[in-house]
Amino acid sequence: LWLLGPLGQADEALREVELLLQLDPLSIDLRHTYLMVLVFARRYEAAIAQATLILQLMPQSYAGYFFRSLAYEALGDDARAIAGGMSARGTAWLLLPKGTLARHGVD
Predict the structure, then answer these.
(1) 53 and 65 in contact (C-beta within 8 Å)?
(2) Model pLDDT, residue 71
(3) What residue spans of the chain are helical by DSSP H?
(4) Sign of the CA dihedral running 85, 48, 35, 43
(5) Is 92 helix (H, G, I), strand (E, B) or coil?
(6) Whole-angstrom Cα distance, residue 65 to residue 57?
(7) Which of 39, 70, 85, 94 falls between 20 and 30 A from 103, CA-CA?
(8) pTM above the 0.90 mark?
(9) Packing angle of the helix pair 10-23, 28-40 (nearest 10 deg)
């Protein structure tokens, strides 16, 4: 299902995941899928909100930190992207574009 996003069928993927979430709104796996599809669909504000919800339900979610960092970076909020990535135990920020990191003195 999440593969529809990168294949340019993000709207269809969003509809499918939203239907599944109606059946199981507390499923972390579905919420992670929804988060990924939101990022692929370039719906960054919604992705940030979804990631924040995931992190409230599951504070150790690497995907929550990672995709929220990507969404912040896409919106040009480099400081939050880096800070959020570092919150993921110092690993997610390594996957942000080097230009974003360099602008903020992160090697």
Answers:
(1) no
(2) 94
(3) 10-23, 28-40, 44-57, 62-74, 78-87, 98-103
(4) negative
(5) helix
(6) 13
(7) 39
(8) no
(9) 160
